[in-house]
Amino acid sequence: MPFSRDAWDANLGLYETIRSMPFNEALAAGTLPAERFQHYIIQDAHYLIAFGRALAVAAAKADDTDGIVQFSEAAKVAIIVERALHADYFRQFGVTADDFARAPLSPACHHYSSYLLATAWAEPYPVALAALLPCFWIYAEVGRDIHGRAAEPNPYRAWIDTYAGEDFHAAVRGVIATTDRLAAKASPETQGAMHVAFTRATQLEWMFWDSAWNLGDWPVR
């Protein structure tokens, strides 16, 4: 069994929890309060910068030129999407540049960003990819699930269409294929570390959305 299928199956219950969590249920229904989506997109913009950095580190560790191109391009896309949030979603949902500049990373965003960067720098290339994979894959699956049941009209249609679209899914399939190729020739110890990284990142995906739903902030200042 490929690593990706084994890892997905092992975390299927956690994925289902993510798919059906209040944030995503309200997003599909079009009833998500604007305040919660504002919190989400601000934190997502912060997160995408760190995600892009982690992808760039993965590109530097790639074992072939295809990997360098694949993850350098993914890093570029992450930053382009982050800038698009400023240009489109921020304006649409009433978030100013000053709002973003003054908003610190939430505890969940800080944890997730720090985890990906630390893993990308400190762990072998296959483990770094295993940590990065859930963000790609879970967004693709959640996007298509929400797309299939989204109420109309829906103020979040642009977000839904982005992650349900074929361009994004093609990129996700490419990351899965590269991760599986590396896992197939990795040692049992590295494969074990890959599974740990995949599960931890999946847990952090849940924490990120749950934080947006609960308007997560630092309990002390």
TrEMBL record:
| Root EC class | hydrolase
Main role?
Catalyzes an amino-pyrimidine hydrolysis reaction at the C5' of the pyrimidine moiety of thiamine compounds, a reaction that is part of a thiamine salvage pathway.
Q: Which reaction does it catalyse?
A: thiamine + H2O = 5-(2-hydroxyethyl)-4-methylthiazole + 4-amino-5-hydroxymethyl-2-methylpyrimidine + H(+); 4-amino-5-aminomethyl-2-methylpyrimidine + H2O = 4-amino-5-hydroxymethyl-2-methylpyrimidine + NH4(+)
Name of this protein: Aminopyrimidine aminohydrolase
Q: Please state every residue range assigned to the domain named Thiaminase-2/PQQC.
A: 22-214
Q: In which pathway does it act?
A: Cofactor biosynthesis; thiamine diphosphate biosynthesis
User: What is the E.C. number?
Assistant: 3.5.99.2
Gene3D superfamilies (UniProt xref): Heme oxygenase-like
> Which keywords are on file for this protein?
Hydrolase, Thiamine biosynthesis
Q: What is the phylogenetic placement of the source species in the record?
A: Bacteria, Pseudomonadati, Pseudomonadota, Alphaproteobacteria, Hyphomicrobiales
